[in-house]
Amino acid sequence: MDLGTGDGRFVLAHAAAHSDRLVVGIDAHHAAMVDASRRVARPVARGGLPNARFVISSLEALPGSFDGIADLVTIHFPWGSLRAAAAGHEPALTARLARLVRPAGRLDLLFADAERDGGRPIDLDAVRAGYELLGLHPVETRPASLADAVAAHSSWGKRLLSNRGAGRRAWVLRLEQASAEEGGRG
Q1: 23 forms bridges with which residues in the sheet?
Q2: DSSP result, 170-183
Q3: Would you tell me how many other CB atoms lie within 10 Å of the CB of residue 17?
Q4: N or C: which end of the chain has fewer CB within 10 A?
Q5: Whose CA is closest to 73, among 118, 150, 14, 132?
Q6: Do the Cβ atoms of 115 and 81 come closer than 8 Å?
Q7: Domain 75-186 in CATH 3.40.50.150
Q8: DSSP character at residue 90
Q9: In the chain, which segments carry CATH 3.40.50.150?
Q10: pLDDT tens for residues 29-76?
Q11: Spatial CA neighbour of 104 closest among 69, 66, 63, 133
Q12: pLDDT at 184 over 50
């Protein structure tokens, strides 16, 4: 199972590209997923995606039954409490996010350090160290590109990364959970 956040465009694209996987979009605001949920409910012949589902929930309210079920968790350009969790600024929420990833699974973060995203600046070294303590090991850290925003189907990300002259920064951070044989979470 793969979990993703946002307005559903990435979930739709990911579900279409991986018809053998259950892809679940999660957002605290139902309005963000209305169009995408209508599309997945169509008959397959009309573009429906039976392998895609949507859940209305914040990270804080997500049921414990989601713990350890995701092969892949993707978070693209989060804001508010989800940004705080992804950036390690709210340790309990960061731990909750890490618990979603199953052994040998992956967490992919695409996030910006833009003032309008709110919250404190992002310290990548501290973010990586915090996830290491939770058993998620960094496998890639790099500045995000416009191609990353396009792949994420993020109109905000495209605007942000098209305007690098504004002093805005964004990163890709990919982390992997240790396999069960390697000892799981630390």
Answers
A1: 2, 52
A2: EEEEEEEEPPGGGT
A3: 9
A4: C
A5: 14
A6: no
A7: yes
A8: S
A9: 75-186
A10: 888 788 888 999 999 999 899 999 999 999 999 999 999 999 999 998
A11: 69
A12: no
Q: Which two tokens stand for residue 112?
A: 């910006």
* Gap between the terminal Cα atoms of the chain: 23
Angle, helices 9-17 vs 34-41, to 10°: value is 30
For residue 54, give both structure tokens.
Answer: 């949507």
pTM summary value: 0.87
What is the number of residues in the chain? 186
Q: Which two tokens stand for residue 176?
A: 């992997």
CA dist., res. 31 & res. 50, Å (int): 20
112-136 pLDDT, tens digit each? 876 665 568 889 999 999 999 999 9
